[in-house]
Design a protein that fits this description.
The chain is mostly helical. The protein is about 75% helix and about 0% strand. It contains five helices and no strands. Helix 3 crosses helix 4 and helix 3 runs antiparallel to helix 5. The longest helix is centred in the middle third of the chain and has 28 residues. It is elongated. The relative contact order is 0.10.
Length: about 120
Amino acid sequence: PRGGWYVVLRVCRVFRVIRVFKLARRSENLLILLKAVGNTSTELFVLFIMVFMVVLMFGSIMYTVEQTTDTGGKTQFTSIMNGCWWSVITVTTVGYGDMYPRTPLGMVIGTMALSSE
């Protein structure tokens, strides 16, 4: 059971995090980084929107291709969200290997997704 002591420990942990942020104000390199992010916030926003659109597009296409092609019932793309998960992993070049296209057309689309970013 999570009693009162658990809450006290959580509050203490929050204060420790706040203390780290106070120390961060004294770091000149961190301030430069924050200023650079602040100055390019519009460009970063556009970048994230574009990546989101690419992920959604390739995830939807991969789901459609893998569902409409006969793979013997072995498709891993059971929903568009699974396709988007695959797309995020592929576009960011992490490549866990947990999901991969099994059809030739899906492999071509996977290559296009990999080279899109």
